[in-house]
Design goal:
Layout lengths: L1 E19 L5 E21 L4 E5 L11 H12 L5 E7 L10 H16 L6 H8 L6 H6 L2 E6 L3 E4 L7 E6 L6 H6 L12 H10 L2 H7 L1 E2 L2 H7 L1 H12 L4 E4 L6 E5 L2 H11 L5 E5 L12
Parallel strand pairs: 1-8, 3-4
Antiparallel strand pairs: 1-2, 2-4, 2-5, 5-6, 7-10, 7-11, 9-10
Helix pairs in contact: 1-2, 6-7, 8-9
Pathway: Isoprenoid biosynthesis; isopentenyl diphosphate biosynthesis via DXP pathway; isopentenyl diphosphate from 1-deoxy-D-xylulose 5-phosphate: step 3/6
Organism: Aerococcus agrisoli
InterPro entries: GHMP_kinase_C_dom, GHMP_kinase_C_sf, GHMP_kinase_N_dom, IspE, Ribosomal_Su5_D2-typ_SF, Ribsml_uS5_D2-typ_fold_subgr
Length: about 290
């Protein structure tokens, strides 16, 4: 029997890098939200004691360099599973875009194998396992809108954003999160954290306050390496977005509007600058099995 699982992308409404920890990871405070742009995974249990991962993008690894493969490997070990699984990933989320594509695929594997292999681990255990695969994977297990702290393992579901349209523009460049963090100089980050202001705006349900609060402390580093992203941000504002920021470590730039017709105009205007442009909405709810 073949079963499917949706793996939604995420955006950052806020991303603050606070300090470098003693373990050399960075302490973060972020507000993440799932959006209705998703990869789609299919699963088939097989009698052979092995993991097979296939993707629709020829350049992506299909061995233990793939986060989905790592997630299956970890679940297999924890559950002492002696059979195997064949996983096919239909990629719709842009790769290396700051939208959590690899992380959400791994999260989908944790969710689906938890039921298909009758492991029935609670959310907290799944998230603990997910943190061993990647820093964004734990958040992606339940999805929704959440405050994410620590190195990504402290997750609190919060009030979702007011209804709006989000335009994503991903230029034809790839950004390495690892390299961005390697070049990040915490002592030179002179800015007021965005996360507290975003949390207050969400709690009050104020779209205008949210637009004034969104931000990403990695923009300076990523923009210095890719100046076209700073220009893209200004273009999006010029075309009428109410607020614009970068998602993750980039290069995707995201703009917001509550008016569909304006969003469509921004979408059409940006397609002249970027091959990958999307108009999406926030998915306010976590996955059904993790609703409180």
């Amino acid at each position: 029997m073949i079963e499917g699982e949706v793996a939604p992308a995420k955006i950052n409404l806020a991303q603050d890098i606070l300090f470098r920890r003693d373990d050399q990871y960075h302490e973060v405070a972020m507000v993440m939200a799932s959006i209705d742009l998703s990869d789609y995974l299919t699963f088939e249990l097989i009698p052979e004691n092995k993991i097979i991962v296939e993707t629709s993008r020829a350049f992506l690894p299909e061995d233990n360099r793939n986060h989905a493969f790592q997630a299956a490997q970890l679940m297999k070990k924890v559950g002492n599973i002696q059979s195997g699984v064949h996983i096919s990933i239909e990629k719709r989320i842009p790769v290396a875009a700051g939208l959590g594509g690899g992380s959400t695929d791994a999260a989908a594997v944790f969710r689906k194998l938890n039921t298909m292999w009758d492991m029935n681990l609670p959310l907290s255990e799944l998230q603990a396992l997910a943190s061993r695969v990647g820093s964004d994977v734990a958040y992606s297990i339940a999805g929704g809108t959440a405050l994410v702290e620590g190195r990504g393992e402290k997750i609190s579901l919060i009030q979702p954003a007011p209804k709006c349209w989000i335009i994503l523009a991903k230029p034809a460049i790839s950004v390495s999160t690892r390299k961005i963090f390697q070049q990040l100089d915490i002592d030179r980050l002179k800015y007021e954290p965005n996360t507290p202001k975003v949390l207050a705006a969400l709690e009050n349900g104020s779209y205008d306050d949210l637009m004034a609060a969104i931000g990403n402390s990695l923009e300076g580093v990523t923009f210095s390496q890719h100046p076209q992203l700073a220009r893209l941000k200004q273009q999006m504002l010029h075309f009428g977005a109410d607020g614009v920021t970068m998602s993750g470590s980039g290069p995707t730039i995201i703009g917001f509007t509550q008016v569909y017709s304006r969003g469509h105009r921004i979408y059409n205007a940006l397609r002249g600058f970027c091959q990958e442009v999307y108009m999406v909405r926030v998915m306010p709810e976590p996955f059904e099995q993790f609703k409180s």
